[in-house]
Amino acid sequence: MKKHLPLLCILLCVFFLQNALAQSTKISGNIFDSESQKPISGASIKVKGKNTGAISNADGYFELKSNTPATLVISLIGYATQETEVASSESLRINLVQSIEELNQVVITASRMEESILRSPVSIEKMDSRAVQQTPSANYFDGLVNMKSLDMVTSSLTYKQINTRGFNSTGNSRFLQLVDGVDNQPSGLGFAMGNLFGPHDIDVESVELIPGAASALYGPIAFNGMLNTRTKNPFEYQGLSAQTKFGVNHIGDGTGLGAKPMYDLAIRYAQAFNNKFAFKINVSYLRGTDWYANDYTDIDPNTPEANRGPNNPGKNQLNIYGDEVAQTLPNIGRVSRTGYEEKDLATYGVYSFKSSAALHYRITDKLEVIYQANFNQGTAQYTGSNRFVINDFKFMQHKLELKGSNFYVRAYTNNEYSTNSYNTRALGQQINRTWVKDLAGNTVTPDKADATWFERYAAAYNGAVTGVTLKDPNSARAFADQGMIMPGTSEFNAAKDRLIQTRGLSGAGILSECSLRHLEGMYDFSSALKFVNLQVGGNYRKYYLNTGGTLFDDKDKNLTNSEYGVFAQLSKSFWKDVLKLTLSGRYDKNENFDGRFTPRASAVFSPTENHHFRVSYQTGFRNPTIGDQYIKLNVGPIIILGGAPVNSAGLNAYENSVTINSFSQFASAFGADMQKGTPFPQAVANNKDKLVKSNVPYIKSEKVKSYEIGYKGLIAKKLLFDINYYYSQYTDFMINTVVARANSPILLADGSVNPAAAAELLGADRQLFQLYTNAADKVSIQGVSAGLTYSLPKNYKLGVNATFIEFNLKNADPNNIPAFNTPKTKTNVTFGNAKLTENFGFNVAWHWQSAFDWYGTFTEMRPGRVKAYNLLDAQVSYRIPSLKTVVKVGGSNIANKYIVQAYGSPAVGGLYYVSLNFDQLFR
User: Fold this and answer.
1) Which of 202, 424, 461, 660 could be cross-linked to 387 through a Cys-Cys bond (beta carbons 3.0 to 4.6 Å apart)?
2) HSE-up of 660 (CA within 13 Å, CB side)?
3) A GO term (biological process) for this protein (predicted)?
């Protein structure tokens, strides 16, 4: 990366120093509605074939500079796109005709070039700037749930994760999120945190979603799909915009804590000078009280389901932490420690601070250089293997881009700083180890606390403690809990703060200061070739890891990982655009894995202007995340070991170990022989052949092949209909497996089990490893999604879509397949009118999905039921033209039904808000 940046800077300087040969002419005018003759604001005016453009203001006025003669392209959702020839400097009056243009939008993401959404070679969804403004959800990102094929999971008020086409999770490393071409994932986490670090609504121009594999154009992260968000260009969207939103949640949540306020403040300012230089600044701040995870269901797997519940001495309650520590006591049964509720451990006062600045300079009317910097900071809860608090997490990005009409070169950096985040479950367990007293009344050290607590419980239960009722579990627990520090006390807060700052196995804190550097570019040869469209591009990326040795083996080391990819896409239309064929291919190489080629082929058949049939074959792959490759965490009885070969060098875990199942059988049989009086060497010899040498391959990429057919059409110029069917086959899913390693070779030269190794496995020389690897099992999914958008008279608009998806395990071992975690059916209905009157509008959205079982590492992959639910969002808006202000009153989940979207995550209720949007002030 460092080698490439100086060259890029030199090129940019040369461009800056050169003088444009042609002279620019000022072009201005006003945009009106052809019927009402009222001025139209927000219309896009662009010079065809160039980067030059503008947006009309509240009076319909625009101005820009361009060489003449020129062709202006004027467009706005709800109006027919119009082209106007300009011969010289003049003031124009342009009338736009209302139409159903919104049903035939232009998209970019599907093919990395502009094309009609009707002729896209693959399924694609789009949310434009008007849909962003009119969404009834609390923000545009929450409103994405109304797109077909998309699933959304809430872990926190400030963090929602999205996914498409199955294998859903709360931290989705199979799905790519781009913002202005920049990957929005913190590299240490390995997945994007929803929109915690993304743009605010007031700066979003459009959002495009590709459901399903997109690796052929976008690389390994786009295994399950991608979301591409574009922000507003400061040349086109100028002036001051601001939003003040005040809301309330936690109404009637059953906790007795009362309703809580939420506020979201944002400001954007953009200005252009002489159509050559422009800048924009964005600042936003959201604060509120997070949704509570307060499900106290007993999920202890060692207690029969009929005996679980609040009276179970061994209960393990879902959102209480510390009670996972349990023992089976002789003549008593299973007993768990008393835990702490999540609300006493988590940071429920969450916030999101976002700021960005961008500088744009037009070297010529076809060449632009952009520098952008983003600084984001926030707090959210995340449901992973535990409940984590992503606390005061800082995320910074820098981007430098040179963009022409047919190419771009882009370099960016992502840097994360997490010094105050922590594991909530570990925090509860560690606090529990600070106050335990022995039977003499002395506080013991943390390493003895759990054993001492159970000793106290057993003594009290068995009647060895005066004043404690014999064989009464409640009295025994009360005695064992004597001295327990209580939430809200200064002692509890001091222990909590200390343990959050303590990292590693003795604390709860998490450190991550990882980063990535990325360089990419693309060139479109289409204008030069004329007879065919050809795009060629590539990228280089390098990760820099720093967790201080708390997660990776990176303490006092420069641990890095690099990868690169190149792609090409060829497309051509035949028979006057009746048939369009597209071929794409990409080759990616990570330093730890074999190179991977992912092709894509598609055909779009358009017998008429309004009817389009498509068929496609797509492939995708996913490289292991940084954590999958490099985690090296010794948690006492077992070492969690990432699957990159370099990460396990010298440990001999993959090469010289036995399967955990065979070790269990060997140890059990050995123990039985010893009980019979068999001498140790003979007991080993009798049973050693039960051991099976493991054959765990190093981790490699997951793969998918997908076949899709679809149709998009305009019927009677009022109804857009879209339907697709897909079938996908997956293999090489990444899994974990446990092995036991010995120091001596497992096998002798003749292939028999080595008695010395078998003996070592029974003693202190045994080491257990949890290894990252792949399963050879194959599974498939198939699904259908369909949607219609109907433009009704008098500006009413109706949208309906439905998605059906089916998972086929085939003959695969369920333990080798990641959790599908996806409802079989879901439906969305939207209905609204942005112009019910001149200044009044409304929008309503209803979402329903079926019940399903959620499997997650938070519950050790034991299923928890996510019930079927529906959500109703609604908003009404009133425009005050004289103040350039829109007042919006609305709510998400207005029926206030508390629903859980992932087992173990919080219950989400209604959020009600009122907002004031000031737009294009001082323009």
Assistant:
1) 424
2) 11
3) siderophore transmembrane transport
Q: pTM value?
A: 0.89
Residue 26's pLDDT is what? 83
How is 54-112 classified by DSSP, letter by letter?
EE--TTSEEEEEE-SSEEEEEE-TTB--EEEEE-SS-EEEEEEPB-SGGGS-EE-TTTT
Answer yes or no: are the C-beta atoms of 535 and 529 closer than 8 Å.
no
| Predicted confidence (pLDDT) at residue 546 exceeds the cutoff of 50 | yes
Cα distances (Å, whole numbers) of residue 586 to 120, 220, 407, 566, 733: 19, 10, 18, 6, 21
pLDDT in tens, 197-233: 999 999 999 999 999 999 999 999 999 999 999 999 9
Helix, coil or strand: residue 909: coil
More confident site: 496 or 882 = 496
Percent of the chain with pLDDT over 90: 74
d(C-alpha 20, C-alpha 546), whole Å: 46
Residues 804/823, Cβ–Cβ less than 8 Å:
no
Structure tokens at 191: 């997945």
Block residue for tokens 């896409």: 569
CB 267 within 8 A of CB 280: no
CA-angle at 413, arms to 407 and 418, nearest 5°: 155
- 7 pLDDT band, cuts 50/70/90, is very low
Tokens of 512: 């991550």
Residue 669: which H helix or E strand, with range? Answer: helix 660-675
Contact present, 1 and 411 (Cβ < 8 Å): yes
For the cut 70, the answer to whether the pLDDT of residue 22 exceeds it is no
- Length of the chain equals 923
Contact 163, 151 (CB under 8 A): yes
Q: 299-309 in b/e burial notation, b at 16+ Cβ within 10 A?
A: bbeebeeeebe
- Going by their DSSP bridges, the two strands 632-634 and 734-741 should be labelled as unpaired
Separation of alpha carbons 121 and 828, rounded Å: 24
- pLDDT tens-digit map of 74-127: 877 667 788 888 887 778 888 888 765 556 788 999 999 888 888 999 999 999
Q: What is the three-class DSSP state of 18?
A: coil
CB 62 within 8 A of CB 69: no
Q: How many CA atoms lie within 13 A of 297 on its CB side?
A: 13
What does the pLDDT average to over 489-505?
95
Walk me through the domains of the chain, giving residue ranges and CATH numbers. Answer: 4-99 (2.60.40.1120), 305-346+426-510 (no CATH), 628-699+736-774 (no CATH)
For residue 302, the model assigns a pLDDT of 87
Average pLDDT rounded to a whole number, residues 328-353: 96
What's the one-letter identity of residue 378? Answer: G
pLDDT in tens, 168-177: 999 999 999 9
Using DSSP, state whether 760 is helix, strand or coil: helix
Residue of 572, 714, 726 whose CA lies nearest to 122 = 726
Q: What is the pLDDT of residues 859-909, one digit of tens each?
A: 988 999 999 999 999 999 999 988 889 999 999 999 999 999 999 999 999
Residue 482: other Cβ atoms inside 10 A = 12
- Tens of pLDDT along 720-755? 999 999 999 999 999 889 999 999 999 999 999 999
- Across the chain, mean pLDDT equals 91
* 824 membership: H or E segment, kind and range: none
Tokens of 441: 């009344």
More confident residue, 129 or 8: 129
* DSSP one-letter code for 546: -
The DSSP code for 365 is T
**Could you give the angle at the alpha carbon of 141 between the alpha carbons of 136 and 144, nearest 5°?**
75
Write down the pLDDT at residue 17.
41
CA–CA separation, 563 and 592 (whole Å): 9
Burial of 486 from C-beta contacts in 10 A (0-12 / 13-18 / 19+):
exposed
The alpha carbon of residue 883 and the mean position of all alpha carbons in its chain are separated, in whole angstroms, by 38
